[in-house]
Specification:
The radius of gyration is 14 Å and the shape is globular. It has helices at residues 6-14, 17-22, 25-33, 41-52, 62-70, 82-89, 99-110, 120-127, and strands at residues 2-4, 37-40, 75-78, 114-116. Helices cover 52% and strands 10% of the residues.
C-alpha cells in the first residue's frame, strides 16, 4: 500500500503532467487497480487551506473537489488516530515543524505505508531511514 503526499494526490486528480514526470504515475496506477492507495486525512485540510490562500483553485467548490477526490477509485482516507497524533509529535531524528507534513509522515510510519512524494524535506528524512518511500523518483 502507498500513501500519497498532498501534492501527489492533487496532481493525480488534476491529471497533471508533473506526476508522469516524477516517475510515480505507473506505480500509482498499479496500486489504484488493487485499491491500495491512501491519503492522510490531513491532506484534505491542507488542500482546503491552500485553496483559501489562493495557492490552488478548482473548477468546482473546494468542498465538492474534496468529496470527489477523496472518493477516487482505488483510494481511501487514513484517519488521524491517537497513535498517529502521538507519532507526529514524536518523530525520530530531525524533521521540520510543518504539522501537515508531520501528520503525513506519521501516518505512513504508523500504518506501514510507503510514501509517494517529491518533497525534498521528506525525501531527506526517508534517506535517514525514518520513513519508507514508494520508490526512487526522478528529480524535477
Amino acid at each position: 500500500m502507498i500513501l500519497l503526499d498532498t501534492h501527489i494526490w492533487v496532481w493525480l486528480i488534476a491529471g497533471s503532467d508533473k506526476l508522469r514526470k516524477s516517475g510515480l504515475l505507473g506505480e500509482i496506477l498499479t496500486h489504484a487497480k488493487s485499491s491500495t492507495i491512501r491519503i492522510a486525512a490531513i491532506s484534505m485540510w491542507e488542500v482546503a487551506m491552500l485553496e483559501a490562500k489562493k495557492r490552488l483553485s478548482f473548477s468546482e467548490s473546494t468542498q465538492q473537489w474534496l468529496e470527489h477526490a477523496s472518493a477516487a477509485p482505488g483510494l481511501a482516507v487514513e484517519p488521524i488516530t491517537p497513535k498517529i497524533a502521538f507519532e507526529s509529535a514524536n518523530l525520530p531524528g530531525i524533521f521540520h515543524g510543518d504539522p501537515a507534513d508531520r501528520l503525513i509522515v506519521a501516518t505512513a510510519r504508523v500504518s506501514n505505508l510507503s510514501l509517494c512524494t517529491v518533497d525534498e524535506n521528506i525525501l531527506r528524512y526517508a534517506a535517514a531511514g525514518h520513513v519508507k518511500i514508494a520508490r526512487e523518483i526522478k528529480k524535477r
